[in-house]
Write a structure and sequence with these properties.
The longest helix has 38 residues. The protein is mostly helical. The two termini are 25 Å apart. It has one domain: Arc Repressor Mutant, subunit A, CATH 1.10.10. Helix content is 73%, strand content 10%. The chain has a two-stranded antiparallel ribbon with strand order 1-2. It comes from Actinokineospora cianjurensis. It holds the Pfam family MarR_2. This is DNA-binding MarR family transcriptional regulator.
């Protein structure tokens, strides 16, 4: 149906359908996140798992930069980093450019466990999308990217 022919009612229905499907997706994502977090370490919660994933792409980094990059408040980041340190998944190291500052980075164990879990996650996603055409995957990825940018 074209944009012109859809009308206000059609657009509202489409928006409600999208909201319902996103709600299902987010619920499943939370559940999977808990599962993956537990596989990295039994004591790891999903929020700290999300931070660990984020750190894997930017570390070594100052905690203050993590606050800025994630949009999380300082106390949340501090608490999550402390938890990740307790679990020996991240460590603080001296900043080579400023001996007084400390950088946060994944430990060897943290990086290895996360890499294993992420590979399993990728394998599961590839299996889920096995019957999808490449064009559909590309279009879905493009639209998700657009939604993420708009949010």
């Amino acid at each position: 149906m074209s944009e012109v022919g859809a009308g206000t009612e059609g657009r509202e229905t489409a928006a409600q359908d999208l909201e319902r499907e996103l709600s299902k997706l987010f619920g499943r994502a939370r559940s999977l996140s808990l599962t993956f977090a537990a596989r990295v370490h039994p004591g790891l919660d999903s929020a700290s798992y999300a931070l660990l994933v984020h750190l894997s792409g930017i570390a070594p980094v100052r905690a203050a930069d993590v606050v800025e990059l994630t949009g999380l408040d300082k106390s949340t980041v501090s608490r999550q980093i402390a938890r990740l340190e307790e679990l020996a998944l991240v460590e603080r190291v001296a900043d080579p450019s400023d001996g007084r500052a400390r950088l946060v980075q994944l430990t060897g164990t943290g990086a290895a466990r996360l890499a294993e879990v992420r590979e399993d996650r990728r394998r599961q996603l590839r299996a889920t999308l096995a019957d999808w055409s490449t064009v559909d995957i590309e279009e879905f990825s493009r639209l998700l990217g657009r939604l993420n940018s708009d949010l």
